Every structure is written in C-alpha cells, then in structure tokens.
Please model this.
Amino acid sequence: MSEYILELRGITKLFPGVKALDNVDFQLKASEIHALMGENGAGKSTLIKIITGVHHPDMGEIFFDGKKVSFKSPRDAAALGIAAIYQHVTAYPHLSVTENIFMGHEKIKNGFIQWSPMHKEAQALIDSLDAGFKSTDLMSSLSVAEQQMVEIAKALSTNARIIIMDEPTAALTRAEANRLYEITEKLRDDGASIIFISHRFEDMYRLASRVTVFRDAKYIWTREIGEVDDSILIQAMVGRELTELFPKPDVTIGEEVLRVEDLSCTGVFKDVNFVVNKGEIVGVTGLVGAGRTEVMETLFGITRPDSGLLYLNGDAVSIRSPGDANKKGIGLLTEDRQNKGLILDWSLGRNITLPELSKFTKLCMVDEKLERSEAKELAEKVDTRAKSIFDLASSLSGGNQQKIAVARSLTSKLDILIMDEPTKGVDVGAKAAIYEIMGELASQGMAIIMVSSEMPEILGMCDRIYVMCEGRVTGELSREDATGEKILELAMKKRAHSHSGTADARETEGTA
Model:
C-alpha cells in the first residue's frame, strides 16, 4: 500500500515555445491538506490541469493509490474521485443550486431527471457545510463565498477523494475565509485529501501540514509546515530575500499636491480629511466596510460627494467624472481589475493605450505603429511576462494583468496615482515588482495613495498612513511610529466607542 493517494513523478509539459512544467514531482498523502505555493507562471495551474485530466503530460508518470494511471480526459480523473474548485467560480448563474451541483452527473431514471431526490441530496450536502441557503435558490442570488460552498458540495456529490482548491480565499472577507478554513478541515477529517493553492501565507499556516514550492516550472522542495517561515518561503518562491520584498527608496517629500477637507457622502463616509505630498506614498487602510474604496472613487469622479472640498496644488477643484480627474492629473488603479480595470477580450497593448487613445489618433485614424511602440515600452517597463503585446489580457496571469493595469495608468501624465489593493490576488514576485514600480514613480515626484488591507505592505511601503473605520478617518501615523497593533486599534476605534456616540474623526487623530 502506497504512502500517497496521489504521486506525480518527473512530470514535464511543453507548449509551443514554453516549458510549463520541467521534471516536477508532487506527492499527496491521504487525509492531508497540502499547500502548493509559487509565483504566477511557476506551473501550479498546469499541474492542476494534468491532475484533473485537462492536459496530458509529455513526460512523467502519475500514480493513484499506488497504481499507475493515465487520464485521457477530465472524466477519467473525476471517475477516480478528483475534483477542482477554482478562484473564479464556474457556475451557471441562472440555474438553481441543485442544477449546479449535479451538472454533468444528474440522477436520471427511465429517461427523466429525478428532481426530488436531487433537491433532497443537494440540501443535505448544503446543510453538511452549515450553509444558510436552499437547494432551490438561484446561483446568481448567492455571494461569492456561498457559490464556493456550492462548488464544494458539487465535489462532495461526486464522492471526491481528492479536492483541489485554487485560490479559494482570494475574493473572500476574513470572516468568510475563516468559515472556509473550518469547512476545509472538516473535509480532511472526513477523509478527503486536499491540495490548497494560495498566494496568502496565512492560508498555508492555518491549514496545511506540508507545503510544496514550484519556481519557474520546476519543483523546488516539499517541507513540513513547522520547518518553514516567511523568509524561507519567499527565498524558495522568488529567489530573493525577505528584506528585498519592499524596495522602498528614500525620497525627498515635496510640497502638497492634494488636500481633502470634510469630504462626505451620506451613509458611506463622513468628514474625511487627509493630505498627500509630491513624491509621497500615503497608505489608507482599515477593516472591510471602512469606506476606503468609496472615498477613492469619489476623488476620481466615479461618485459625487454631498459635501467637502478638494484642493489640487492649492487650488479648489470640482471633479465631475473620471475623464475630468484624468485631465487634472489623477489616475486610479481599481481594486476590481477584471471587471473595471481591464477589457479582457482586448490585447494587452490596446488595454495599456486606451486612456490616451486620442494621443495616437490623427484625422480619425489610429497610428498603430506609434501605439504599439508606446504599449511595448510601457509593458516592458512594468516587466510584463507575455509573448507579445497582441496577447489577450484574459490570457495573462493575475500578476501580469495587474502590471498591465499599472502600465495603463502610466500612459497619462499624472501627478497623483490612486492604487486600490494593487497587489490583491497576485503572487509574492509580482508584488515585489509592483512595489518597485511604486517606488520608482514616487522618486520621480508622483504622489501615490495606496489603499490596502495587507498590513505588511502598508508598513513596508508607506511614508504616512491614514486609518479608517466605518466611514471616518480615525487616525494618522508616520512611517516611524506605525505598528500593526496601532493600525488595528485605530481600525476598530469607532466600533469600540459606538455606544457612547460618534466622535469627530479629527478629535481622535492625536491619540494614535
């Protein structure tokens, strides 16, 4: 009897011009949660597709329960009890939960679908996950976290013995992630073996007993969780030391570029005040629902404030639209790059040049040679990994999509760049590249506002930090004074005092 339920030996996979996997090994024990870590492009996705039968390896062997197997299609892998749950849920939004769970393996008798038994079994699966929705609910009515529970229920409906979870916490709140942790541990305790892929170290430490690292399509090592720490992992994943992760240059801070006074939007945020200076990276942080994104969208003209004043270089301004903001030298890197930041069906080159397409247009004709030249230059500046600027944005990894979004913001002449969760969902190597770009822009005099939920990058990259809670700024911290404890205290400040009245945010700033 083999020690491993799944073992891959010497797996190599070639695509035209690319070696996606280079002689890699991987072993999964029965009833373990095994973390698979690596940068985007390290080979993790290709490995998943080989395990699930989407791709066939060019070299190497796969063993299941000690027996050599070969998957000709995903159906072969599913027949052995292998299921995958992806970051972007592949659901049918206009069908019911039951229909989504049993899609492809419906219960049929005498040529008729057995709806009653299917609804009953689907509800039992949902209840086993302690989910608060019904089997008859439409998928479109569920949250992202609930849709992922449906995907887990679908895996359970096939009696899956191996469940692959690909970035399942990327779009979840902390509370939703904690609930997913509990469900994942219950699946393990019930006998399932789980491969958990994540860019978040917190996921790995919380769940996994072992971790395997891939880098540049190669297997690096497998270790027990107790044998690793952040510095060891980062060195293995990107070949750099932890100290190199936040390349914050020393920049002489210039004069005031932006001043926000008493900015309010009824029911969303109130009396928001802050200042940003030339060459400065200013962090804005807080818990989910603090109003950070809403403030930034107001600064960019997506929404209109009810009251308050904005000053650019000392002059009062009114920003009525994103186009107006862009003309005034303000750019926004949106948190939702897939739906708001990029047009995924367009080439990465056209995505980069879109904000300033008029710059390449003469007599209603686009000078495509000039456009391609600038797009290529900017794509290279942010170190985008793609075959050419003609590649569709949808074909890129999350980290490279984010780099394209950054490059897009550089086509305009900006004084202020708002970066809302700039490293959300990207790997540690892409994060370091984005931080480096931020530092370079700041050294050139650009003012940067970085909205982030990640404490390490806020502490590692920001010259000053504003903390928000429930729509108000509850404190300001300098780089020298900021600690995780102080930020968390300010992020929870209003909630802690919510029963004793709402103090003006400016009265609390001095208590940081």
